[in-house]
Amino acid sequence: MTDKSVTKVDAEASPRGKMGQKYLASGVHLSMRLWEDEQPGEPKPETERDYETVGYVLRGRAELHIAGQMVLLEPGSSWVVPQGTLHTYKILESFTAVEATSPPARVHGRDEM
């Protein structure tokens, strides 16, 4: 039997995580979150997560530092951070992006480590 449930999430009513992310729709194998108007500053602490992340930039610019590389993220850019890969972001201009994580980031507090 296939799950045929439909979930709609309004970003205005979405819960926020400790890092400023808004949690959007979440399924069994995948979840979405929104980083909205992240402001420039010092690089985020380096981290590695137990989920894979793919993202898409809506506006602004940021650097993704991953595996000895720097990837410039600009509007229209998309990226992948493989599960377990050490990485950090540095916001260069007010930044808004949507990310999807698999398995879902919020399950069992994965996003708040």
Task: Write a brief caption for the model.
With 113 residues, the protein is mainly beta. It has no helices and six strands.
Secondary-structure map with pairings?
Layout: E1 22-26, E2 31-38, E3 52-66, E4 69-73, E5 78-81, E6 87-102
Antiparallel strand pairs: 1-2, 2-6, 3-4, 3-5, 3-6
User: Which descriptor suits the 3D outline?
Assistant: globular
Largest sheet: 6 strands, antiparallel
> Share of helix among residues?
under 10%
- Examine the coordinates and then state which fold CATH places here, giving the name of the CATH topology: Jelly Rolls
Secondary-structure element pattern, one letter each:
EEEEEE
- Going by CATH, the architecture would be Sandwich
The Cα radius of gyration reads 14 Å
Strand content: over 45%
How many helices in DSSP terms? 0
Backbone structural class: mainly beta
Please name the fourth-level CATH homologous superfamily: Jelly Rolls
How confident is the prediction overall: mean pLDDT?
Answer: 91
Q: At the first level of CATH, what is the class?
A: Mainly Beta
Low-confidence stretches: none
